[in-house]
Amino acid sequence: MYKITFKKRLNEQVVQMEILAPLVAKKAQPGQFIILRVNEEGERIPLTIAGYDREKGTVQVIFQIVGKTTLSLSQKEEGEFISDFAGPLGKPSEIEGVQKAIVVGGGLGTAIAYPYAKALHDNGAEVDMIAGFKTKDLVILEDEMKRACTRLHIMTDDGSYGGSGMVTVRLKELLEEDKEKNSYDLVVAIGPLIMMKFCALTTKEYGVKTVVSLNPIMIDGTGMCGGCRVTVGGETKFACVDGPEFDAHQVDFDEAIRRSAFYKEQETKAYEAHKCRLEEMR
Amino acid sequence: MANMSKTKLPIPEQDPLVRNSNFDEVALGYTEEMAVEEAERCLNCKNKPCEAGCPVNVKIPEFITLIKENDFEGAYKKIKETNSLPAVCGRVCPQETQCEALCVRTKNGESVGIGRLERFAADWYMKNVDEKAEKPTPNGHKVAVIGSGPAGLTCAGDLVQLGYDVTIFEAFHKSGGVLVYGIPEFRLPKAIVQAEIDKLLELGVKLETNVLGGKVITVDELFEQGYEAIFLGTGAGLPMFMNIPGENYNGVYSANEFLTRINLMKAYRGDYDTPIGVFKNVAVVGGGNVAMDSARCAKRLGAENVYIVYRRSEVEMPARLEEVHHAKEEGIIFKILCNPVEILADDRGYVDGIRCIEMELGEPDDSGRRRPVPKEGSEFELEVDCVVMAIGTSPNPIMKDNTPGLEVNRRGCIVADESTGQTSLEGVYAGGDAVTGAATVILAMGAGKDAAKAMDEYIRSKK
Ligand SMILES: Cc1cc2nc3c(=O)[nH]c(=O)nc-3n(C[C@H](O)[C@H](O)[C@H](O)COP(=O)(O)OP(=O)(O)OC[C@H]3O[C@@H](n4cnc5c(N)ncnc54)[C@H](O)[C@@H]3O)c2cc1C
Ligand SMILES: Cc1cc2nc3c(=O)[nH]c(=O)nc-3n(C[C@H](O)[C@H](O)[C@H](O)COP(=O)(O)OP(=O)(O)OC[C@H]3O[C@@H](n4cnc5c(N)ncnc54)[C@H](O)[C@@H]3O)c2cc1C
Ligand code: SF4
Ligand code: SF4
Ligand code: FES
């Protein structure tokens, strides 16, 4: 069992948690993820490592409530336990040698992109962070992000806060301004698949190396099921061991989008049923 | 007077048309009377041909004689002398190619039902004897086992008996390896595996789940922490695909994923969260135990038509005879001498068919089996909404990639001495599927045993 040592609601749908898992904390690196199970009947779900404290032995995750498992997790309180917490899994981000970068986060993706920005920044890189949200109320982690980058660009789809429009709008502006100097050596995009796809298309025009962190459906996270397979550069890769980060210009996004929707109907049913049961209990 | 019946006493089974929609065990096991009756068929041969066919040389005529004498506890203990998982082996060993293949009774009829009797003795013991494990005296030495399949469990069991302080590290949240995530409940009830694991824990074995060896903890770190020898029983968990067009469409699974969802995550039960698709027509590609298990699971999940698509003929099928027989009884449709060439999908990318080509058998290949060659122009399509690839697995490279100096062969299998399990690294031993590639439970167990013995000798020689 793994103890929840800290919990904070970042907004209605997004929760931050710290879990006591010394073995994971000891080895964790930016870009890696863990797989957890809330209880015995629970599903194994992957979450990105958003931070870690090797001394305290804790690992931080930030998750969005999208379905049954994330909902059950969000209902656990500080001091309570979850059944399983395995990691670190996947390859760490490659941040060595990066001088100047743009990190793009979309929606909850900002929570996953933020530790990436922080790692680059801590490593001495100049970092522009673009964080996109639907609207002002959904903005999360603003202070944390500010500290983790050189310049923070918040965008809202409806223009209610920061710049107006999608993240790709600002991404394009930054790259356009920098066209002559061509000084960015890396763009990192993390968020919904569709956002990552369009970020990749945008940066391709400018020929800037771009990395995305993919989040296909996973079970084991150790390379034994192949459920997480994605096509990158025409080859089948297992995202849990070969990734989760890949060269954005090589990823077959359309296939990834299709595969990620496979269990949608069943998941929605399970989520609705679970919510109903909770409401009945109230 | 021996029972001279030419056939094995049938083992009571659930009716095929009932069992193909539940996950309860298919074979129900002998009663005491039945076991004695079948045991009477054994001629107690002096030269014990059957024993030579068993990879761990279970003392077959001896334990069967004890059954004849109604000493079921004695029979169990006799088996246990060389086999640490009789309840498992009695159920899943390919007896027809091992112990039973060499039984003299096959010269004129069927062999003695050695597997069934072994299972009977184990089940009887589990039900009737409340064994209190006596903790062995500690010898002050620490050893680690990575992976908790039959190889790792056996190795840990033997070492703890010798007084070692044993810790098993397992990547999954549950121990048992293929016995829990691969082989389905209806063939090997999970409670049996759990009982074996509980016994080890009672003896003092420590189990650390959720620890991926190589990544979370390396071999060098284990040595630094005072473990004196390490056993790698990490299995052959990496699924292979065919590399044909359409393999990434929605509805194509590796058998590992399909079976893990069903067996480990219990997707077939309403009270568990992990989903599995609802399919009408399923094609399972392959002819081994894994293929049979996948097909029979698909049927139990409610599929109307389940096909086994296998490129050789039925005689070459590597699956246990009994499972092929059971699968047929349950209504699985066999498409033998057929090979898939492409998986087809609708415009949303969901599988809606599989295109296959008929095969014929040509000259024997390196494996001695006749090589299947495609018949030109014989392509045809099956309408399916799910395809399960059960064409084999190989060892996961995680251990090798994170253990400098650990030698593996061309197929990614860890190179280890056949009789001791010694790898290219001092103090590091390996066995089971991680060394041989996908094989059998009994061979994995045997390798775990051999390694335990060698590890003990190694540690004692250091003193
Ligand atoms: C490497 C990786 C890192 C991730 N990091 C984060 C993170 O830091 N924060 C966060 O909020 N989310 C993250 N996710 C996504 C997260 O795993 C899913 O939101 C979660 O599994 C949903 O479970 P659920 O039961 O609550 O929802 P469900 O109702 O089960 O599913 C909702 C949606 O989540 C996706 N999903 C479902 N099951 C899985 C699964 N086993 N694996 C992957 N995706 C699944 C599906 O696309 C589904 O449509 C990550 C995913 C991956 C693969
Ligand atoms: C569906 C199916 C049906 C089968 N049917 C039969 C049958 O009827 N009869 C028969 O004799 N054999 C059968 N087999 C084969 C048999 O199950 C295997 O040969 C046997 O389980 C191998 O044992 P093992 O201990 O070497 O490995 P496994 O059983 O594969 O166990 C390996 C364990 O190590 C863990 N692991 C892997 N990597 C790491 C790591 N890096 N760190 C920590 N833990 C790790 C895995 O999670 C797993 O628990 C079947 C196999 C399958 C898949
Ligand atoms: S362990 Fe397997 S091969 Fe050996 S006697 Fe028992 S059933 Fe036969
Ligand atoms: S060969 Fe057959 S009959 Fe002879 S001892 Fe073995 S099991 Fe009995
Ligand atoms: S999650 Fe199973 S192989 Fe990646």
Overview in brief:
The complex is a heterodimer of chains A (282) and B (463). Chain A has 282 residues and is of the alpha/beta class.
Overview of this structure, please?
The complex is a heterodimer of chains A (282) and B (463). Chain A is globular and about 55 Å long. The mean pLDDT of chain A is 90. Chain A has 9 helices and 17 strands. Chain A has a domain at 2-89: Translation factors (Elongation Factor Tu (Ef-tu), domain 3). With 282 residues, chain A is α/β, with parallel strands linked by helices. In chain B, a hairpin with a 5-residue loop joins strand 11 (351-364) and strand 12 (370-374). Chain B folds into 3 domains: 16-128, Orthogonal Bundle (Fumarate Reductase Iron-sulfur Protein, Chain B, domain 2); 142-237 and 394-461, FAD/NAD(P)-binding domain (3-Layer(bba) Sandwich), CATH 3.50.50.60; 241-389, FAD/NAD(P)-binding domain (3-Layer(bba) Sandwich). The longest helix of chain B is centred in the last third of the chain and has 22 residues, at 441-462. Chain B contains 17 helices and 16 strands. Chain B has a 5-stranded parallel sheet with strand order 3-2-1-4-16. Chain B is globular. In chain B, helix 2 runs antiparallel to helix 7 (114-128). Chain B is of the alpha/beta class. The A-B interface holds A 23-24, 27, 37, 41-44, 68-69, 83-89, 219-220, 222-227, 229, 231, 236, 241, 255, 258-259, 261-263, 266-267, 270 and B 171-173, 209-212, 215-217, 237-239, 241, 243, 247-248, 250-251, 253-254, 256-257, 260-261, 265-266, 271-275, 277, 348-349, 396-398. Bound molecules: flavin-adenine dinucleotide (2 copies), iron/sulfur cluster (2 copies) and FE2/S2 (inorganic) cluster. Residues 42-45, 48-50, 60-61, 64, 103-105, 112, 114 of chain B line the site of one iron/sulfur cluster. One flavin-adenine dinucleotide binds next to helix 8, helix 13, helix 15, helix 16 and helix 17 of chain B.
